[in-house]
Fold these 2 entries.
Entry 1:
Amino acid sequence: MSVLRILAKNILLFGIASSYISLAFAQKELNLYSARHYQTDEALYSDFTKKTGIKINRIEADDNGILERLKSEGDKSQADIILLVDAARLWRAQINGLFTPVKSKYLDERIPANLRANSEPEGTPWFGFSTRARMIVYNKASVKKSDVDTYEKLADPINKGKVCTRSGAHPYMLSLVGALIERDGLQATKAWAKGMVANMARSPRGGDTDQIKAVASGECGVALTNSYYFARMMQSDKPEDVNLMSKLAYVWPNQGAGGVHVNIAGGGMAKNAPHPKEAILFLEYLASNSAQEYFANGNNEWPAVPLVKVDNPALKLLGKFQAEKVSVSAIGKNQIAAQRLLDQAGYK
Ligand code: FE
C-alpha cells in the first residue's frame, strides 16, 4: 500500500471515528429549568459543557413560572434539573412530587446537612448551592440600632408605626416565620406576628428593594431584606442609589441570640428526568469550587460549600455574621404553620 493510500485510509477511519464521537457528544444533553439567571451563568454552564461534553438546554422563567410549567407538563416533562430560590419553594416542589431523590456521596460531603433537604432512604430531594441572609435595614435619622437588632424587637411596641415588610404570603416571609417557629416556638411566633402587624408603617407590599427605598425615603423606619438586594444597591454608582444608601444602615440581627436567618438557592433532579446520569453530574458540578464561585457571585450570595472563597467586594463590605443553626428542611416543613399563623395575625 502506498503511503498516500495508508494516509487516505487513516483519514477516512479517523473521520468516521470522530463523527461517532461528535454524535455521542451531541446526544449527551441536559434540560435545565432555572429560576436563576445572572451574568455569570454563561460561564457556569459553558464550563460544565467544556468539562463533560454535555450540552445544556435552558428553560428560564421566574420561580412560579417554573413550578407552573412543571405541573402542567406532568409526567411528560423533559426537565432534568430544577433550580429554584428559597427553601419555601424547594419544599413546595418536593411535596408536589417534582424531584427525584439523589444519592451522591460527593454532594452529601460538600453541602452541609442544614443546607439541604432531609435525606430519605432513596436519597436527597434537593440541595442548597448558595446562601443569602435576611438582614434588617433602618433609617439612620429616625431609628436607633439597639431598637432593631433582633427580629423579635421589630414586633416590640417601641417600633410602632415604623416597620415595613413584603407580603406575608411571600416565600421570604414564610421562610423567616418558619425559622422563628423553630427558634422561638409556635406561641411566641404567633405573638410576634401580631406585634409586627401592630407596628406596620404601611400595609405589606412590594419587593425587598421597595422596602429598602421606603426606609431611605423615611416612609418606613425599618425593614427586612435579603442580603443580595442590599449588596446590589451598595454596588450601584447611580447617584439616586448612592443618595438612598447614605440614609441607611443595616444590622445583622440576633448576633448571640439565634443568629441571622439564612436561606438558599438550590435545586435537584426532576421526577422523570430523561438524563439522570447527566443530571447527577451537573448537581455535583454545582458543588465544585469553581461552580460555587460562579453560582454565588452571580447574585452576590455566599457559597453553600464551606471554605469556598468568593472575591466579591460587596460581600466583603457586608462583613461576617453569625448565622442561625436551623435547617432549611425544618423551614420547609414549617411553611403551612407559618402561613396559618400569619393569616390569623391579619398579616396581609
Ligand atoms: Fe429575591
Note: Confidence is low (pLDDT under 50) at residues 11-22.
Entry 2:
Amino acid sequence: MTPMTVHPEVAKALENFSLPEDLGFGHVMAPVMASCIYENGKWGQLELLPYGPISMYPNAKVLHYAQEIFEGMKAYRVGGLGPFIFRPQENHLRFNRSAERMAMPHLPLEIFMQASLGVTAYCSHFVPRRSGESLYLRPFMFATEEALGIKPSDKFRFMVIASPSGSYFSAGGLSVLIERFGARAFPGGTGFAKAGGNYAASLLAAIKTKQQGLVQTLWLDGREKKYIEEMSGMNFFAVIDNELHTPELNDSILEGITRKSIIFLAREAGIKVVERKMDIDELIADIKAFRCTEAFACGTAAIIAPIDFMADESGERYPLQQPEGKMSLKLREMLLAIQEGRTEDKYNWILKVEPKSFS
Ligand code: COI
C-alpha cells in the first residue's frame, strides 16, 4: 500500500495547536486526523488532514441506519518516554469483528496501523505526560452511501481522530445503578460489536442513573435480567474471597482488551481468575456478607476504576468494603506501568511510535 499522504495544511494545523492545561476526557481534539474512503469494492488512498468538519449528504446511510463502528486506543508518553500504543493489533482484530457483524468491509491492518501511528507520530508533541494521561485514539468507520433504502452501504469512510486526555472519571470511586428493566443488548444482537448503536441504546438508562445521583449503569443479560453483563464502555470485575471474578463472554458483552489484559496479568501474579455467569443477587449477598470486598470497571478509557457502591432503583445501596481495594490498585499499577513504558514489556504489548515533525 502507498504511504499516507499528508495534506499541505497539516504543518500549519500542528504549528497553531497548543495543549491546554485542563484536559478532561475527549474534549480537546488533536489538530490532525486520518481518512480513507472505501468505494467500488476497495479502499482508496489514506490521507492525513487538518482536524475539522467533514461533509456528508443528509441521506448518507449512517445518519439513518447507524451503520457505524469504532475503537478506542491510547498512546502514552509519561515522563517523555514513548509514545507507546497499547496492543493496537488487538483493536484491529476487534474492529474487523465489529465490521463483520455490522455488514461492513474489513479494514486492512496496514491502513489501521498507518492511520493510528501516523496521527500519533505527528501529535507526539501533544501527548500529555502525567501518569494516567494519554492521547486517546478513536478509529471509526461509517456508511456514506447516499440512498435511503435499507441495505448495507456500498461506500464507507474510515477515520482516526485523537484527543489528548486526562482521566475518564473525576476523582473518587464509582457509584453504579443496577439496570433491572431495560436492556442494552440481547442474544443474537450486536452487543459484542463496538457499534455506535449499542452506546445509543445505553443513554436513556444513563439519564436515569444520573437522576439518581449515580455515575455508571450496570447492565444485566437481556433475557432474564439476572446475570451481570457489562457497563457500556467498560467491563465489570469483582473480588470475591480474594479471587477475581468477571462475567464470562457471550455475544452481548464487548470483549475488552483491558479486560483480557487484566485477566492475563492477574493470572501471572498468581491471582485466581474466574470467568463465569455472575448472578446479580448472589453478588449483592456476597457484598453484604463481606465476601465480595472490591469491584471495579475497566476499559481503555477508564483503565481500572474502583466502585464505591452499587445501588438499586429503590435507593438501596450496597457499599463495597474496600472501594480503593488492594487488588484493584495493584492490577491498575501493573497495567499502567506496562502501558506507560515504566516497566519491562515482557509480553510485547506496547508499540513504540517514532515522532514526526516538519521542522
Ligand atoms: C473505550 O474505553 O475506549 C471506550 O470505548 C469507552 C467509551 C469512551 C465509549
Note: The mean pLDDT is 96.
